[in-house]
Structure formats: structure tokens, C-alpha cells
Amino acid sequence: LAEVMSLGSSLSQMEETLQQEVEVVRTARAHGDLCDAILGLEDAFLAGREVPEALNNLKSIARETDSFVAQVLDRLPDGIDQQASTPCELLRQQFLAQHSGLVAAAFEPPGGGLLGDFVGRLFQWLYIQQASSHEALAERGAGGSADQAVRQNLEALRVAAPAVERGDLEAVLDCLDRSSTGMCRERAAEWMANVEKALQLRQALKVVKARAQCLTIA
Question: Cα-flanking dihedrals φ and ψ of residue 145, to 5°?
Fold first, then answer.
């Protein structure tokens, strides 16, 4: 009887050990799936393709795997998967292509219209041709009087340009958000919104990647 009881105890211990090992394997597999989903979203974000699908896949796996990652993703704004689908490099190129139009918008007088657009592009051309006289051109931009809004927008664009060249979209967004006004801000609004969403998703990716590394080490 004692031998039977001893054997039963040994089998129970073995079963418990096996259950623990199964749980370790299950957890490791779940963490592996989570890491794969995070990398999938990062690849989609960098390529600017299938971001909604990759984000939804990560959310689904996170809900089953790790509540912290799930909470981070749930805090992202609605529609970010669509608005953040433009790669950062493409956003940089878009700003460079749009820069001359933003300079023209900085000179455009209130009211806009065809005449306003013509005035803006005329002074934008003079601005580029006479780079050494930017301040004077800014002062002549609106009806020959010093215009604080024109100078403010031109300064914002001047500061933003090298930041874009460096790929520092966060600095560009901050500069335009603080300083741009009027038509210049209106023309840049869609680009600024896309950059904001891209930066939010990029920040979320950094957080969940750090969390995945902690889980892997643990």
C-alpha cells in the first residue's frame, strides 16, 4: 500500500511538472505570435501597405496574449490605421514637393481667390529669386505693409525645411502647429494630420516592441 501511495504521489508530481512545462510552451508560443504580429505591423507601416489589416491582426492577438499591449492599441484614435498608412519617407517627400506652394500661401492675402493666388505665387517667386531679401519681401507681402502673419509663416517654413531634410517630421509638425496661420496652415492641414497619425502609430509601435522584448526576456 505504501508503495502504491508513493507511486501515486510521484505520478502527481510528474503530471504537475508536465503541466507547468506545457504552460511555459504555450506562453512562449503566444509571445512569439505577438512578436510576429508587431513586426508585421511595423513592416506594413514602413511600406505603407495593409496597415489596417496588420493593426487589426495585432489587436486580436494582443487581446488574447497581453493586456498591456491591447490597452496601448485601444488608445489609438479611430481611423488611425487609414490615416497612418503613408510611410514617413513619402510624407517627407510630399512636404518637399508642397513647400513652394506653402510659401505662396504665406504671401496670399486674406480672402484668397484667383487674385490672391496670383499675388501669393508672385511673391513666392520673388522670395526664391531674392533669398537675401526675405525680410523685405515678407514686409511687402500684403499690400505693401509689414505683415506679422507673413513673416511668421515664412519663418515656420524656413525652420521646417532642414528638419524635413533630416527626416525629423515631429519637429516639422511642432513648428507648423505652433507658428503657421491662415492659408499657409490651411494648405498644410491635411499633411499635418497625416504626420500626426503616423507619429502616433510609430510611438505606439515603440512601446509595444519594448513590451514584447520584456516578455521575451522574462
Answer: -110, 155
What pLDDT digit, counting tens, does each position of 167-190 carry?
Answer: 899 999 999 999 898 888 998 999
Per-residue confidence at 29, pLDDT binned at 50, 70, 90?
A: confident
Please tell me the chain's helix, strand, coil percentages from 3-state DSSP, rounded to the nearest 5.
85, 0, 15
- C-alpha to C-alpha distances, 166 to 96, 147, 155, 161, 213, nearest whole angstrom: 12, 30, 18, 9, 29
Phi then psi for 213, rounded to 5 degrees?
Answer: -65, -40
pTM for this prediction: 0.69
Of 160, 201, 161, residue with least CA distance to 178? 160
CA nearest to 41, candidates 207, 217, 191: 207
More confident call, 106 vs 53? 53
As given in the structure block, the three cell numbers for residue 196 are: 500626426
